[in-house]
């Protein structure tokens, strides 16, 4: 019986030897000068690029749970800053989605599952004692619109972000690909 990793590595060996990578070749610089923060939801993997007409190399896409920026100096914001200054992105899209797993997520649900998988209560207490607000860190959001606005606000108000970069907030329907605008970044710049 082979493992998932063995299957992946065997496929990869054939992928490389048969040069199946050639159709994916592009540069590290986004053609549309766009950086996107979106959710890691598997339904968006192919739907989102097709719904917004992205082709190979058009955008830098950053994914995390819920398209949430939880800290202005965390890895998500660092990636956006690098995309702008080092890779030439000139616009930012924050794209949340309806029916997101982060909606109404409560820390207790995650922590209970962690305990079932072997994380002991002492570890959780050490985290809390160390100043980690694990309940806030694992908390989801109530309304996707509010979450998108929050993430856009963090990007827009970051001290390292140029004032002329439009920061857009959108919500996609993971069934149909329909987009709804929450924040039009062009209007925000003109205001």
UniProtKB/TrEMBL annotation:
Keywords for the protein's UniProt record, in alphabetical order: Metal-binding, Zinc
Cofactor(s) annotated in UniProt: Zn(2+)
Binding site for Zn(2+): 39, 41, 97, 100
Pfam families: Pro_CA
EC number(s) reported in the record: 4.2.1.1
One Gene Ontology molecular-function label: zinc ion binding
Record's keyword annotation contains Disulfide bond: no
Reactions catalysed: hydrogencarbonate + H(+) = CO2 + H2O
InterPro entries (alphabetical): Carbonic_anhydrase, Carbonic_anhydrase_sf
Cofactor binding note from Swiss-Prot or TrEMBL: Binds 1 zinc ion per subunit.
PANTHER family referenced in this protein's UniProt entry, alphabetically: CARBON DISULFIDE HYDROLASE, CARBONIC ANHYDRASE
Stated family: Belongs to the beta-class carbonic anhydrase family.
UniProt name for this protein: carbonic anhydrase
Organism: Anaerobacillus isosaccharinicus
């Amino acid at each position: 019986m082979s493992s998932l990793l063995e299957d992946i590595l065997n496929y990869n060996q054939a992928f490389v030897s048969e040069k199946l990578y050639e159709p994916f070749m592009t540069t590290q610089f986004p053609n549309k000068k766009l950086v996107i923060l979106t959710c890691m939801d598997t339904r968006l993997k192919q739907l989102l690029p097709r719904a917004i007409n992205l082709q190979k190399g058009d955008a830098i896409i950053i994914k995390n749970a819920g398209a949430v920026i939880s800290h202005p100096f965390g890895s998500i914001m660092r990636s956006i800053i690098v995309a702008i200054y080092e890779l030439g992105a000139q616009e930012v899209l924050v794209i949340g989605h309806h029916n997101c797993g982060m909606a109404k997520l409560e820390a207790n649900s995650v922590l209970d599952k962690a305990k079932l998988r072997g994380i002991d209560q002492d570890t959780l207490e050490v985290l809390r004692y160390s100043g980690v607000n694990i309940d806030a860190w694992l908390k989801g959001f109530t309304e996707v619109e509010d979450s998108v606005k929050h993430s856009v606000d963090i990007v827009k108000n970051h001290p390292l972000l140029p004032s002329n970069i439009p920061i857009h907030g959108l919500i996609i329907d993971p069934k149909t690909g329909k987009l709804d605008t929450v924040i039009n970044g062009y209007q925000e710049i003109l205001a």
